[in-house]
Structures are given as C-alpha cells and as structure tokens.
Amino acid sequence: MNSTAFDSQSALAAQIVSELAALKPHSRVLIPSGSTPRWVYDALAATPIAERLTFFALDEWVNVPSESDGSCLSMINQDFVHKCAHPVRLVHFDPFAATAQNIAHYQAALEGQEFDYVILGVGMNGHIGLNEPGVSFAADYLQTQLDDVTIRVASQKYFSAEVTLTEGITVGLNKIIKAGKVIVIINHEAKKDIYQTIVNGDAQRTQVPAIYLKQFPHVHYYVTKNLEG
Questions:
Q1: What dihedral angle (degrees, nearest 10) is formed by the CA atoms of 135, 76, 179, 24?
Q2: Would the pTM count as exceeding 0.90?
Q3: Residue 152 belongs to what domain range?
Q4: What is the pLDDT of residue 189?
Q5: How many helices (H) and strands (E) does the chain have?
Q6: C-alpha span between 23 and 16 (Å, rounded)
Q7: What b/e readout covers 81-115, taking b as 16+ CB neighbours within 10 angstroms?
Q8: Is 28 helix (H, G, I), strand (E, B) or coil?
Q9: pLDDT (tens digit, 9 = 90+) per residue, 21-36?
Q10: 137 DSSP 8-state letter
Q11: How many domains does the chain have?
Q12: What CATH code is carried by the domain that includes residue 66?
C-alpha cells in the first residue's frame, strides 16, 4: 500500500496541485465532490492550472436535481468551478438520464483515452465515489443501490432540505484503475477507523472498494498525520 502522511491539509493540497501542474495540457482529471477535496479545490482555484485541464465528476445521485445544494455537481461547482477566475471544463452525469446515455457521454468526452489523474475520497463505509461495498469491481461505469450508511451521512451532511436518496451513478473501479495515477485522500479525524480498516484489510478478499484499490502500485493514499497510530 502506497501511503504518504502530510503534516497538514494545506500541505496535502499543495502536493496534489503541484502534480496537477505537471500534467500535460488537456489532461483528463477525475474529481469527487464532498468535504474531502475542498482544501485541494481552494488551492487549485487560486492558480490558472485548471484552465488547461478537463475535469470529470466522479459520480452523481440518481433522480436528484443538479441544482439541489447536495448534488455532486452543485458541490463541485460551489467548492471549485465557481471559485476559479477562468473557465473550467467539467463533464458530469445527468441525474435523470438513462445509464447508457450517461456512459456514452463520458466515453465521447474521453475520446478513447483513459483518465490521466484521479482524485478520490473515502466514505465512512469505505465506498469510493458511489461504488458501494459489495458492488462489482469489474465495471467501468455503473448505477448502484446506495448503502444505508451513505444515505444517512449524505442526507444529514450535504442537503439542507429533505431528500430521497436511493441510487447513484459512478465511474467504476475498473475504469479508475486504468488511470495514469490515482490519489485517495483521507484527511479527517472521523475517517480514522476506516483508514485503519484499509491498512489492515486484505485487498484480494474484500468487498470494500477502498481496500481493493490498495493493491495497485499507481494508487497512492494521501493522509493527514492525525490518522496514523
């Protein structure tokens, strides 16, 4: 397992921004929503780097309007896109489109290429995007039934109004591991237990996406030092 511990959130964010700056123009970057990447987005928005990259949203709630404050698109726009002083190209899922239509949209935007760089967070249950525990790890894209933990945490944390969450669409693990480099960020005290579960878990015999990914040499876990020990 490739794991690097940083002294602070800002140091972790600075490392990722430096790696994004080293990418070739028009590189394809897969990004998550939620609280995990906000330090990275703040640092990135203060630079012109994003203007020469193409970003893809990792996932989206199914049948939840994009303008809802807790939608994945809304969070990425608020935390990143709208903070940039320059245009940002962001490819995202349509929460009301058929799965096949969403997949075709991403495939067309990728133009037969793979993601050059992937940024991920980890859910309290070890999910990656909306790849929930127990889903197939062999899919490039999939629509999933949401885990009860995901529904509870997301409903309380991200939405200001009552919402019904049942399914999500996400880039699958099989697509993620084809990327040039994958960064998994774990940077909050509340994730200490799941981090230890990942460290001690068996990547060959697991139903937890965040454990499965650790077997690949180009997957790097960037964590803050408060999670160790």
A1: 180
A2: yes
A3: 1-225
A4: 85
A5: 8, 10
A6: 11
A7: beebeeebebebbebeeeeeebbeebeeeeeeeeb
A8: strand
A9: 999 999 999 999 999 9
A10: S
A11: 1
A12: 3.40.50.1360
